[in-house]
Amino acid sequence: MTATGADLRVGFFGELDPADRAAIASRGRLRRFDTGSPLMREGQAGTEVLVIVSGRAKVTYLTRDGREVILDFRGPGDLLGEMAVVDGNPRSNTVQAIEPVEALAMPAADFRDLVAQSPTLANRLLQNMIRRFRDSDRKVIEFGASHAVGRVAARLVEMVERFGTLTPAGHVIDLPISQDELAGWTGSSREAVAKALHALRELGLVSTDRRSYTVRDLEGLQRRYL
Known about the structure:
46% of the residues lie in helices and 25% in strands. By secondary structure, it is α+β, with helices and mostly antiparallel strands. It has two domains: 11-142, Jelly Rolls (Sandwich); 147-223, Orthogonal Bundle (Arc Repressor Mutant, subunit A). It starts with 10 loop residues before the first helix and ends with a helix. 36% of the residues are buried. One of its GO terms (cellular component) is cytosol.
């Protein structure tokens, strides 16, 4: 990978035509964020978009009572901040690094110009937004129809698909996520998540360590809860 990220071939960025990737890379500047640092904050104006080059971040929303709800995780190749740049409204969520992150930052005006000039980029942007809306709708239905164990199981399966590595012990999830964060992602209390993980361990479906999860029987987890 180059310092500009122009040869990144994953996520939204990897789906773009070479000319669109080169245009974004040439107009963007590389920014670095330490673990725990915000890449963008809820309520801010959309002054730029970011493309993650390395590292991962969590997308969160703060409820009125101060509870952090995790909406998703983003990693290399993912686009951040495009909605506020496109519609001109303040940012609707916060994105925070969960490990050191490098990202290409492009000013909002430059990004809008590129989208206007490139039908292929505009089409990919629309597809990316639709995919996220569909995923959001699916999770709303899932939260209303599933109990805590089912919601935790669904997120574990999703993490295997996105961040898992197959080992002799099972699918090791390469994402440093705490039980509090898993609770925020599943719309559950920390106590409910702890009980759900205990139940899954007792069934031999998963094993856990501090901020570490291994799915020992992926098919069994999917068959029982999805």
